[in-house]
Structure formats: C-alpha cells, structure tokens
Amino acid sequence: MTKSSEQVDLTHSTLNSTLLSAKNISHNFDYPLFDNIDLDLHQGKSIAIIGMSGSGKSTLLNILSSLLKPKNGTITYNNENLYSLKDNKLLKIRRKDFGIIFQAHYLFRGFSADENLQIASLLSDKDVDDNLLKSLNIDHVMKQGVGELSGGQQQRLSIARILTKNPKIIFADEPTGNLDKQTASEVINTLFDYIKENSAGLILVTHEEDIAFNCDKVYKLVDQKLQELK
Ligand SMILES: Nc1ncnc2c1ncn2[C@@H]1O[C@H](COP(=O)(O)OP(=O)(O)OP(=O)(O)O)[C@@H](O)[C@H]1O
Ligand SMILES: [Mg+2]
Predict the structure, then answer these.
(1) 220 burial class (0-12, 13-18, 19+ CB within 10 angstroms)?
(2) Distance between CA atoms of 30 and 73, rounded to whole angstroms?
(3) Whose CA is nearest to atom 28 of ligand 1?
(4) What is the 3-state secondary structure (H, E, C) of the chain?
(5) How much distance in Å is there from the Cα of 54 to the middle of ligand 1?
(6) Which of 50, 59, 171, 178 to mutate to test the pocket of ligand 1 (most atoms within 8 A of CB)?
(7) Which residues line ligand 1 (CB under 6 A)?
(8) Half-sphere exposure of 179 (CA within 13 A, CB side)
(9) N or C: which end of the chain has fewer CB within 10 A?
(10) How many angstroms does the Cα of residue 143 sit away from the middle of ligand 2?
(11) Euclidean distance between CA atoms 170 and 203, whole angstroms
(12) pTM (2 decimals)?
C-alpha cells in the first residue's frame, strides 16, 4: 500500500515537471492585446494556441520564447524570470534550450540544405540525425541549394535545423502553414515524437483546429484572454 502510493507520487512529480511558467502576462502595442494571461508547460506536453488573425498569437509566442519583454508579468524558466536575466544568459538559453520556428523561416540562402544543418550542428555541438531527415522526408534533397527547395521543403528543413539543436522547448508559429494536410500531419507527428522522446515541451500556434486538438491542451486567444478549450 505504502509502496504504491510512493510510486504514484514519483510518477506524478516526474510527469508534471514544469518547463515554462507564464504568470500575469499583459501586453499592448497601440491597443491592449492581452491581459493577465497565465500558462504552464510541462515536460513531454504540447500546448496549442489558436485565435483570429491579429489577436496576438505571434506576439504571445515571442514573449514566451524570450524575444519580447511583456509590459507586465513574468516568464519563469529553470526557476528564473527570463526577463530579469543578464543579456548573455538569456542569449544562451535562447540559443541552447529554446527552438523557435518562425512564421516566416530563415534559412541561409546560397548554402545547400545540408550546409544549413551543419551550421546548426556546429553551433549546438549536436550531430545531424539522419532519421529525423527521413521522417521529415527531406533526406533526398540535402545536396540542393535552399533556393532549389520547394516552400514546404524549406519549412521542413528549418524544422530539422531547430530539432538538430536538441531544444528543451519548441515554440512553433504556424509550422505547417505551407504544407498539404498529409505532410502537415507528418511534420506535427515528428514534433510530438521529439517532445515525448526528449521530455521536451511544445507550444504551437496554428490556424488548423484538427492539428491544435492533437495537442494536450488547446487555448484560444480571444477578448485579451486565453480561453481553455481542452
Ligand atoms: N512590433 C509591433 N509593433 C506594433 N504593433 C505590432 C507589432 N507586432 C504586432 N503588432 C500588432 O499586434 C497585433 C497582433 O499581432 P500578431 O502578429 O501577434 O497577431 P497573430 O495573432 O499572430 O496574427 P496572424 O494569425 O495573422 O499571424 C496586430 O494588430 C499587429 O499589427
Ligand atoms: Mg502570427
């Protein structure tokens, strides 16, 4: 009896280890975008954020991922408030621990697909994983220049580049925007597999509800609040 309750406790604490915690986040540009938002990301878990165009999803993702200091509130990572850290410490977290997949992807043009991955591999000291390239179905285009890849292949290459860093948290802004339904679901599954295998976390902004509802939690950004849908 005692033993089994200990086991339950152990499982509970392992599964619920918090990776990132946002508290009372408020932000505005010319007008208020959101107010007093809370969000917790746990190891091995995924969160989807949906909402109308212009509702502030990308802005919220920028705030969560260390790129934009909110007007109010704290983002806690490794027991420290991201925006109280010294610049070089924040930069190190952004470079090593966070994998940010932007709405518009940034690849090095004039280099081959393979060279783009080698750069990520050098920066992070991690090898390129051939299985990852196969699962994203880009292993056969690695010798081509970035300009010779289709839009969807470029998008998958930028995802491969992010995963090559072996991040603890993936922040993805519309990562399947350029992809057909089947390829989109393969890409999303690659991200899901990654977070499970690495006890990492995923925060995903998407317009596609079926993709969103495959995540553990779904929030809609509406009326300056995060409405919990799942
Ligand atoms: N740097 C900025 N300066 C001023 N206004 C901004 C800035 N970034 C975003 N905005 C404004 O904030 C609002 C929210 O933008 P955001 O990009 O977060 O929306 P979104 O929900 O991601 O939209 P979409 O679904 O179209 O990508 C928009 O009205 C946008 O014009
Ligand atoms: Mg956006």
Answers:
(1) buried
(2) 19
(3) 54
(4) CHHHHHHHHHHHHHHCCEEEEEEEEEEECCCEEEEEEEEEEECCCEEEEECCCCCCHHHHHHHHCCCCCCCEEEEEECCEEHHHCCHHHHHHHHHHCEEEECCCCCCCCCCEHHHHHHHHHHHHCCCCCHHHHHHCCCHHHCCCEHHHCCHHHHHHHHHHHHHHCCCCEEEEECCCCCCCHHHHHHHHHHHHHHHHHHCCEEEEECCCHHHHCCCCEEEEEECCEEEECC
(5) 5
(6) 59
(7) 29, 33, 51, 53-59
(8) 25
(9) N
(10) 31
(11) 6
(12) 0.89
pLDDT per residue over 152-199, tens digit each?
899 899 999 999 999 999 999 999 887 888 889 988 999 999 999 999
Q: Which atom of ligand 1 is nearest to the CA of 207?
A: 25
Residue at 56: amino acid letter: G
pLDDT at position 151, please? 84
Share of the chain above pLDDT 70, in %: 92
Q: How large a percentage of the chain has pLDDT more than 90?
A: 72
Between 5-14, 118-127, 212-221, the lowest mean confidence (pLDDT) is in 5-14
The tokens for 52 are 């109308």
